[in-house]
Amino acid sequence: MNVRYISISGNTRSFIQRLHRLAEEEHEKDSNKPIIHTKEIDDNTPEEEETEPFFAFVPTYLEGGNGIDNGDQEILTESLRDYIDFKDNPKLCLGVIGSGNKNFNEQYCLTAKQYAQQFDIPFLADFELRGTNNEIYNIYQLLCEKWPAAAN
Hints:
- Residues 26-50 are annotated as: Disordered.
- InterPro entries: Flavoprotein-like_sf, RNR_NrdI.
- This is Class Ib ribonucleoside-diphosphate reductase assembly flavoprotein NrdI.
- There is one protein chain.
- The chain is an alpha/beta fold and 152 residues long.
- The protein has a single domain (2-151), classed as Flavodoxin domain (Rossmann fold, 3-Layer(aba) Sandwich), CATH 3.40.50.360.
- The chain contains five helices and five strands; from the N terminus they run βαββααβαβα.
- It has helices at residues 11-29, 78-85, 89-92, 110-119, 133-151; strands spanning 2-5, 37-40, 54-59, 93-100, 123-128.
- Strands 2-1-3-4-5 form a five-stranded parallel beta sheet, sandwiched between helices.
- β4 (93-100), α4 and β5 form a beta-alpha-beta unit.
- α1 crosses α5 (133-151).
- The longest helix has 19 residues, at 11-29.
């Protein structure tokens, strides 16, 4: 199972590392459970044409405002948007998982929702900050449900 993500503050990276460990543990118990192959995208990552399906994880960083009628301009995470937008990558992206801080109300996970709309992919799930163990488990289960259909 392939995951592409961007992490500015380290929260998404922490979530992905813990998700990866969970996937390894689950795979040890049941070899039919997929392992996660991750790739962190940053401003120095060259755009690359994906050859297999993947999921995208993106935190929300926006320019001020309320996220409704102003302050909905993505900042800091554009390199992941550009990566997904490269060649046929949007067709291989199975969905997006967003993260953010619920204190920002309407802006919570807004970047992931914008990706879903722009690339016509499902907004699958969200987690706050570094995520809880329950969120990690639930998102792994969700990705497993979505992955076999794509992998076959």
